[in-house]
């Protein structure tokens, strides 16, 4: 949902880095214990929920945080239920989630832009032998980690919130729904293996105001290119350097997303993702696939936004 971009700082305080490092360490320990004691599906559910709720760690109110948790659980359950129901059911559910995401009045919970991504991720869990209690328990565990750190995090100021007009909500809802549908259908037709990458990039680009989407897409592309090059170079180094570098990148991702610095968040996100992705593809090929995902997602976000804004503006003039 469109937000005020602001002018973030490049630097990080030692408290920012320490907080991010502690969050990553605790999350890794909790998810690791969940995998050993319960199973991989529960751990994956917790991981997806943590990613989903990461942006509300510093939300201004506990109401926002609790409602965000409720929304994340709803998306997880819906995704799991539709898993295996076929493409058409998935597309309908995708549209429903995109529309609801636009009209849920949760203040900073508007930052929960990865709802469509989590919907598809939990749908795929249905195909891996997971049971509904795995999804629920894992989601509760992930939400517990986020709420625990929310209790010690410094909240954002209420001044950072911006209100949206009904026209903006409609434009965002339609653009997000249309783009998500197009991405899923094209990925299915082309057998693109990382539809989640495309969908996440699309959701992030379209989440800001229309006047900022080209800039956001540009930052996404530049950050992905530089990040992919860094990841390829790091992957050529002897073990355990790539693993250590991946951990550092994850910590910096968390620190910068909490600090509101999108450009550096993207820069460290790409190597963090590529260095931790298990695939039969080489590091170079993964980098190329990542760049393809970002380019396509950015193009879809900008085209859908321009088309929807033009249609809405024409209807208003009538």
Please indicate the percent range of residues in DSSP E strands (runs of 2 or more): under 5%
Report the principal-axis shape. globular
Number of helices: 12
Helicity, as a percent range: over 70%
Structural classification = mainly alpha
Work out the number of β strands.
Answer: 0
**Distance between the first and last residues' Cα:** 26 Å
- As a whole number of angstroms, the C-alpha radius of gyration is 19 Å
- Summed up, the domain count is 2
> What oligomeric state do the depicted chains represent?
single chain
Main beta-sheet strand count, sense and barrel state = none
Mean pLDDT: 82
Q: Outline the low-pLDDT stretches.
A: 1-9, 105-110
What is the H/E order?
HHHHHHHHHHHH
GO cellular component, one term: membrane
Domain Integral membrane bound transporter: 183-304
Subcellular location: Membrane
Membrane topology: Multi-pass membrane protein
3D structure, described in words:
The chain is mainly alpha-helical. The chain folds into 2 domains: 15-163, no CATH class; 166-318, no CATH class. Helix content is 74%, strand content 0%. It is built from 12 helices and no strands. The protein has helices at 14-37, 40-53, 62-82, 87-103, 115-125, 132-152, 166-190, 195-206, 213-235, 241-259, 262-275, 283-317. Helix 3 (62-82) packs antiparallel against helix 4, helix 7 (166-190) runs antiparallel to helix 8 (195-206) and helix 9 packs antiparallel against helix 12. Mean pLDDT is 82; it is low at 1-9 and 105-110.
């Amino acid at each position: 949902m469109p937000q005020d971009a602001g002018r973030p700082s490049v630097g990080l305080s030692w408290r920012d880095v320490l907080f991010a490092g502690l969050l990553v360490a605790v999350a890794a320990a909790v998810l690791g214990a969940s995998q050993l004691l319960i199973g991989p599906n529960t751990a994956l559910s917790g991981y997806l929920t943590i990613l989903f709720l990461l942006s509300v760690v510093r939300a201004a109110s506990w109401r926002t945080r609790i409602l965000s948790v409720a929304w994340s659980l709803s998306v997880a359950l819906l995704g799991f239920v539709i898993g295996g129901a076929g493409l058409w059911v998935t597309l309908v559910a995708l549209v429903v989630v995109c529309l609801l995401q636009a009209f849920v009045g949760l203040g900073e919970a508007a930052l929960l832009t990865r709802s469509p991504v989590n919907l598809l991720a939990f749908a795929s869990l249905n195909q891996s032998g997971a049971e509904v209690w795995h999804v629920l328990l894992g989601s509760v565990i992930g939400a517990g980690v986020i709420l625990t750190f929310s209790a010690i995090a410094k909240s954002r100021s209420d001044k950072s919130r911006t209100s949206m007009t009904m026209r903006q909500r409609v434009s965002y809802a339609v653009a997000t729904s249309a783009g998500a549908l197009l991405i899923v259908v094209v990925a299915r037709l082309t057998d693109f293996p990382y539809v989640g990458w495309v969908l996440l990039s699309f959701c992030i680009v379209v989440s800001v105001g229309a006047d900022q989407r080209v800039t956001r897409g540009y930052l996404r592309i530049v950050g992905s290119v530089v990040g992919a090059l860094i990841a390829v170079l790091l992957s050529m180094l002897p073990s355990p350097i790539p693993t250590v570098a991946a951990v550092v990148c994850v910590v910096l991702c968390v620190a910068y997303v909490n600090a509101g610095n999108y450009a550096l968040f993207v820069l460290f996100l790409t190597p963090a993702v590529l260095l931790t992705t298990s695939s039969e593809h080489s590091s170079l090929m993964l980098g190329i696939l990542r760049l393809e995902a970002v380019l396509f997602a950015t193009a879809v976000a900008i085209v859908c936004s321009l088309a929807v804004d033009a249609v809405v503006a024409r209807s208003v003039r009538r």
